[in-house]
TrEMBL record:
Keyword annotations from UniProtKB, A to Z: Kinase, Transferase
Organism of derivation: Acrocarpospora phusangensis
Name of this protein: Sugar kinase
Entry superkingdom: Bacteria
Signal sequence interval, chain numbering: none
Length: 410
């Protein structure tokens, strides 16, 4: 039995989503350029942009002076101020909430220090929801929130967003997204993703990885996570736990890791290892400031700090070499605290790559630090939150607007 092809309505929904994605990721784009990119005729592009404009997702305007004769092609811009998502980031030391408009514009942002120690989910959820309420009070009446998502430093189950294991913040089998959604009371679910996976997504769509089909993103906090893009797709694994490169073993007889194993990449290269090697853990130094202090001291000639960076850089090189041999990426991007660690130990990393990877795999390899710096995870969370509206713009927009009206009345 032959399977029926897609209906005209399904094709229309797909084209609306594709056009909106081009504008969301690429910024203001002329109708002529959209025609070329999507392979559709001008009248179809005009109809699609008219539908999105009527829904308040985009607007059209005349371009600035092009210097060319003839009638200029209208430019399609995302309605960043009207359509937005709420994005959250739960790290070891900080909590971040942001309101991010269509097109990736950070419209508002809140951040708080999170004391280390036990993880009180009720307290964390209340802090993030409080930030969201503060930001919501400032929005215009005609705005609509089309999604919400959180990045979290742990293994997150894809099917329901439950945080299965987050040793660096002391969280296990926690329905974090469900709890935050209930506290926000906006009538929409909160998607949850691993911070490194979302960092990879952000770099691939808005950072150094734009145009790269295959990349590896390594994220440092207290521990180390990884996000892997293969053929333009985020590698999630069967349950969503893919990319836990911090728990690949590089030194079987090495340091004890929070996961219970020994010699994991996270244990040999993470914050604790670097600060202990540099003799600074006893001073109470930690976090981003502690790592930057070691790198700065090494730059100024501190032999102990230099040796500490050399040691962790050597293990980092082993870890990166394994990833390069397995995935053959075009670029490896270092984010979070690994930005500073890599910059201070690049020679060791490259030396290990030269001796531990196949020559053919490193011929076109680039090693770079994150272009999005500390915003990579929050930008990635926003892209996760935008996913539904980009897949079916008009239906999702209408549904979200109805939900939020009902939630406001309640």
């Amino acid at each position: 039995m032959l399977r029926a092809g897609p209906s005209q309505e399904e094709i229309r929904r797909h084209n609306l989503g594709t056009l909106l994605r081009h504008v969301h990721l690429g910024g203001p784009t002329s109708r002529a350029e959209l025609t070329n990119r999507m392979g559709l005729n001008r009248s179809t592009i005009m109809a699609l942009t008219a539908d999105l404009t009527a829904a308040g997702l985009v607007r059209e305007e005349l371009p600035r002076d092009t210097g060319r004769a003839g009638r200029p092609s209208l430019v399609v811009r995302p309605e960043s101020a009207r359509v937005y998502v709420l994005a959250f980031d739960v790290g070891v030391d900080r909590l971040v909430a942001a309101r991010i408009g269509l097109g990736g514009v950070i419209l508002d942002r809140r951040e708080a220090v999170r004391p280390r120690g036990g993880f009180d989910m009720t307290e964390v959820v209340e802090t993030l929801a409080g930030f969201a309420r503060q930001m919501q009070r400032k929005v215009r009446p005609d705005t609509v929130c089309v999604g919400a998502a959180a990045a979290l430093c742990g293994a997150v189950r894809k099917s329901d967003g439950v945080v299965r294991f987050a040793p660096n913040i002391g969280l296990e089998d926690a329905p974090f997204g469900e709890a935050l959604s209930a506290r926000l009371a906006l009538g929409l679910p909160v998607s949850v993703g691993n911070d490194a996976n979302l960092g990879a997504l952000a770099e691939h769509t808005r950072g150094l990885g734009v145009g790269c089909r295959d990349l590896v993103y390594l994220h440092g906090d207290v521990g180390i996570g990884g996000g892997i893009i293969v053929n333009n797709q985020l590698l999630g694994g069967v349950a969503g736990y893919g990319g836990e490169v911090g728990h690949t073993v590089v030194n079987p007889d090495g340091r004890l890791c929070g996961c219970g194993s020994h010699g994991c990449l996270e244990a040999e290269v993470g914050e604790r290892a670097l600060l202990e090697h540099a003799g600074r853990s006893a001073r109470g130094e930690r976090g981003r400031d502690g790592i930057r202090a070691v790198v700065e001291a090494a730059d100024k000639g501190d032999i102990i700090a230099q040796d500490a960076l050399h040691r962790v850089g050597d293990w980092l090189g082993f870890g990166v070499a394994n990833l390069v041999n397995i995935f053959n990426p075009e670029v490896v991007i270092f984010g979070g605290t690994l930005r500073e660690i890599y910059l201070g130990s690049a020679a060791q990393v490259r030396s290990r790559l030269n001796t531990c990877t196949l020559a053919a795999l490193r011929e076109s390899l680039r090693l770079r630090t994150s272009a999005l710096v500390d915003d990579a995870t929050i930008v990635g969370a926003a892209e996760l939150a935008f996913a539904q509206v980009l897949a079916d713009p008009l239906e999702v927009l209408a549904r979200m607007a109805t939900r939020q009206t009902q939630a406001a009345r309640t």
